[in-house]
Each structure stands twice: as structure tokens, then as C-alpha cells.
What we know:
Radius of gyration: 21 Å
Low-confidence stretches: none
Largest sheet: none
Helix content: over 70%
Mean pLDDT: 83
Number of domains: 1
Structural class: mainly alpha
Number of strands: 0
Number of helices: 6
Distance between the termini: 36 Å
Amino acid sequence: MSIWTRILAGGVVLVLLVAGLAFWMDLYGIRRGCFASQLDQANYQSARELYAQAGGAVASRNYGAANDMLNLALSKLGESYQLGRAEDETDELVTAAKAAALRNEFQIAAQMKMEAMNRRLYLFQRKTRLSGLCHAIAKRWGF
């Protein structure tokens, strides 16, 4: 076996080890997305509708109602949007928004919650796409 063959084989083994480690550690949410059981689409749709209604309330400057709708939307979605072990940056935003609401700064609170909810809805959609892709691959390979 020549030196170049050994180097190539070592590189392939190294790439496989890195990929396996990333999958095991669930860095990008691949494992959690692939092995996600049935994602609750009903709660997602309900949260999305509440988010849209809150957007209308913000547009009409009814920030108190928007905050209430966003609180309900956040609770409907729950933790189902999370992918991987990455820290959830929206938790800090929601905590700050709740503190602003306690100080009667409803406009600021509504804007922060809208931003957090937008991000969480996007992450849920991403998780759904990843789950669908993994299930399609598994079905094609007969797993």
C-alpha cells in the first residue's frame, strides 16, 4: 500500500469520524430533526394564526391585545421548534419582552415577542422540512 493510499484512507476515516461526532452531538439539529416523531402541525397552525392576528393588532396599535395573543402563540408552539443543542437565543428576547410588559411598555414587548415568534416559526418549519427529508430517505432505503 503506497503512502498516498494510506493518506487518502486516513482522510476518509477522519471525515467519517467527524461526521459521526457531529451527528452524535446533534450540533445542527440533524439527529433531532431526523428522529422527530410526528410534529404537532395543529399547534403550529394555531400559533401561526395567532402570530398573524397579533401582527394585525400591532398594525392597529393595540399592543396589549397583541401581547396577549403572542403569549398564547408562544405557549401553543412550546418547545417543539427546537433543533439541536444550540442555545435558544429567543428565550432571552421573550424574557426581556415579558419584563417590558410588566413595566407597561406594551409596544416594545409586542415587537420583541413578534421577532421571537417569527424566529421560532421559522425553526419549526426548518425542523419539519428536515424531518420530511430524513423520512423520505429512510423510506427510499427501506428503513
